[in-house]
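Suppose a colleague, Dr. K., hands you the sequence of a protein chain of 196 amino acids and asks what its three-dimensional shape might be. Before reaching for any lab equipment, you can write down a predicted structure in token form. Begin with the sequence itself:
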Amino acid sequence: FSVTPAYLVIDVTGANTQTIYDTISSGTLLPGATMPYVSNYTADLSAQGAYNFTVITNMPGDLNAVNDTFNTVVQVGDIHTLPFTENFDGAHLGWVISQVSGTGLWSYVGSMTNPTLSPYSGSTMVYFHSYSFSGGVTSRLASPCIDFSTAARPAVSFYMTQDVAYPTDDDLIQVRASTDGGNTWSGEDKVEVGPE
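The predicted structure, expressed as tokens, is then:
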């Protein structure tokens, strides 16, 4: 890139619209390869809400324009203090549902069948309908940012249920923490879901 730089246009729409222009002028990228890049510019994410990022690259001599655009959504909510509770009624600000592998996501529902169930509190719950998904499907339900700095021994608790009609089809829930906005996740606390 020192000889032929790549130019980036980062369009941000949503809670605070802005456009950022950046240039990659160092490093080498072989055809068909990828490389991480951290921009020196910052986006103003001070307003709460959804931000739609579209990153478009332009490099002279690039013969494959198919992979020149990247889209992602970042949901910004308040930083919550302890104790923090959620019953999923309302706008779900700061909660992010994403696909990790396969096809099948968490969803917000008012009731469910197999087993027939209503939310523990309020009128909405999150639901991962694993019965209708292929094996190995993974979806992430990430909470808004929570400030644990005042907690000596922070803990997470939640209510859940599983249909025990299929005793050999165990599900798995992992509770993990991120201290960098969801870029990396730590912890291996697992809740094996299935009949005992």
